[in-house]
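pasting for ref
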Amino acid sequence: MEPIITKRVLELGSSFDSIKRKIETDSKYCGLKKLCKFYPDEKRLEYCTERIYPSECPGRIPILFLFSNPYPDSVRRGLLFSEPHSKAFWQRLFESKHFRMRPSDEINIECWDNSTPKRLGQLMVEGRYESDFLLYFHCYYPVPTNQLQDFRSLFKRDAELRKAIDMTSKTELVRLTKEKDVKHIVAFTVPLFRMITKTNKPGWRNLISGAKHDFPKDEDVEERWARLSLANANDVDVYMCLDTKWKNVTTRKGKRHFTLILDAIFKRILETK
């Protein structure tokens, strides 16, 4: 069973001093500061990051949930989306028609305690939920920062280092999809979706607005989204879901767009498998 929290190393080269100084003095990186260690002689940074690579479950369709970067507080707590403003992600996921906890593994994800991240993480790693799918969680850029822009700002003065990081991220994503036989990726930000598919899809507000203009029913909006948001990268279908920060946005009927769109994507995957 692969761990959720892992250690990674980043070679900083000539940018070591400036990046070290920024992490140690800029308040934007106070979370990262608690998760990393510097090695001046080797000019490298060691840091903790997070992912969920479940044990193989024959007969289930592997899907990769792709995010931009980890959030430092979640890494510190031991599970993706475990910090207070993110916990509702797990409620939205298990509100889906396609995911159910088994009665013997039921976890209260509306009222967390200190044991919840470990128990929920173990459930996801072992794939102990009822579904046609097996979920992998992967961050394209593994360095934990509060915002993707903070990550980019950290390395903006070293073009060669940025290029190397981008190349490593791309290579790791391709290798992961091949090793785990992943044919479906769900990306959770528009910039990330555009970057890996090289397509210029509109943002979620435009997609929903356009869908509502053509189709008056909420359920038609989600179906249309699943069609409009589909692209392809390296023979893998890539869908664009809502950014997780919009996970609590409701439809006119009080349902969550986030879960409805996930369900539409899952339904489309089942139809095309």
